[in-house]
Amino acid sequence: MLEEGDKAPDFTLEDQLGEKVKLSDHRKELVVLYFYPKASTSGCTTQACSIRDNSADYAKAGATVIGISPDEVKDISRFATKNDLEFTLVADKDHKVAEKYGTWVEKSMYGNKYMGVQRATFIIRGGKILRVFPKVQPKRHDGLVLGALAEINEEN
């Protein structure tokens, strides 16, 4: 997994509206890039709805939130509509971006091994990773990330 200080790999992916999103278009902004395993699952819904509910705090911190999963565009579109998610979700269906960030990993459930996305969040500005939260728990995500955003803003 990429670490603090590493260069953030650029990407161009489709969002829930079918529009192209490029990380490099947000170079001057603080970006909260969070990887989640699968749209409409309980943990991912909890995390996304919490981000939605704290959207004013993210905006106050000057952060743009981008969620990324290996789902199809139609699946993230349905997920965004059903949960009134107004931030950007992008589809990494071939998981190439997850691989670049080191979040495409071997997982295990009930003794079965498979490949999937490890939940992780990266705070990025100017193409540089400022903070990394690996294996973040959905219910703790916003407190950790918003706290880090406050620290980053104090430093600058």
Envelope shape: globular
Radius of gyration: 15 Å
CATH homologous group name = Glutaredoxin
Given the structure, what is the number of helices? Answer: 5
- Count of strand segments: 9
**Main sheet strand line-up:** 2-1-5-4-3-8-9
Q: Low-confidence spans: pLDDT under 50, at least 5 residues?
A: none
Which structural class do you get from the secondary structure elements? alpha+beta
Helix content: 25-40%
Q: Which key terms come to mind for this protein?
A:
156 residues, alpha+beta, seven-stranded mixed β-sheet, two-stranded antiparallel sheet
Please provide a written account of the structure:
This protein has one domain: Glutaredoxin, CATH 3.40.30. The two termini are 26 Å apart. It is globular. The chain has a seven-stranded mixed β-sheet. 31% of the residues lie in helices and 31% in strands. It has five helices and nine strands; from the N terminus they run E-E-E-H-H-E-H-E-H-E-E-E-E-H. With 156 residues, it is α+β, with helices and mostly antiparallel strands.
